[in-house]
Known about the structure:
mainly alpha
Amino acid sequence: MGIRRIILIILVIALESTPSAMAAEKIRVQLKWIHQAQFAGFYVAMDKGYYAKEDLDVV
């Protein structure tokens, strides 16, 4: 087998196992009892769907 053929086979195998075929990764975040400004980035990212876009199930 030539080197090009081996590289092609590796590339095909890598593309077939893309992360989009996997289930969303579940992540649990525990914040303080009171909503505070330091968590604003977390709330905005959740509201805008950034976590879902990256295939993360954030709870």
